[in-house]
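Hi everyone,

Forwarding the result from last night's run.
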Amino acid sequence: MIEITQKIKKACIHTLWLPLGISFLCIVLFFSLPFIDIFHPKKIKHVNEIKKDTKYIQMTADHLCYSGYDLVSIAGKKYGYYYQLKDNHCTFFLIPVSETPEHEIKNYTFNAKVISPDTDFTEMAESFAKDLAWDRDSMLQVTRPFIVSGEAYHPIFYLFLFWLILVILLINLKKIIQDIIGFVSPDLYPVCSFLGRKMQREIIDEAQEELSTGMFIQINSMYITENYFIDFGKSSVKVIPLRDIIWCYRLGNIPLNPLNQTHNFSVNFMIRSGKMISISHKTSDEALELVNAIRATEYDIIIGHSDAKKKQAKQKIE
């Protein structure tokens, strides 16, 4: 015996795994990405407090000297290499500058990311050492093994990423809750999204009663009883009263996958409220057989797609 509530439960289980997986991935990303460190960088009072494993900092540099070398980021923004000598150690800073960088900067407060020296820095250090009549190795011996980079600090990107992950997580949590509610209480599952919950319960009961009589037309996962159209899809269950259908037509859909040459079809229903309901992922034969079965019912339903029939359907609603 076909049980609508059991089909609803199966559909809820089938659609539950994807949002669960996405939600788990979002949570992993929340804990993996350095949101807290970026939005609340560690406050540094003295350059000696900076360690190689420190990630994001906020500090006020009392005195920075310009090295004479610049770096242009991918976005086209100009940054200057500045240095500070403290306790016989040299620390390099990469901070945003104007077209004519200042030779000295005092009491400069900024946020930055502590990064390892890269190729650009190595080339700069070699040239800077020559300017000082030093060799590269002597320069690197007094240079701290990191760069305090304002160029590598990207709070806007991470802010966008934070809200994107949060929105995706909330959408999927909502879907998880809906699936759980549908599994626990199939009467609350939106088989007729255009009707209220109380009416849906009545429709499920009435459709189940008609299915139980065995007097129906079956087209694979679709059923037409005396007063209802029922579709038991893998990921959804739809029950539509035939009395609410104004217009019905078949429509071919181009597959999104270019390697898939098999066209799938949908059967579209316009109901009395003007809303369109689509029954998708059907074969050509299934869709054609469904439209013919709808045509054979005793209800006055416009069949087929054309501008004239679309206009006729709208006039009928009005």
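The chain has a mean pLDDT of 88.

Cheers,
N.
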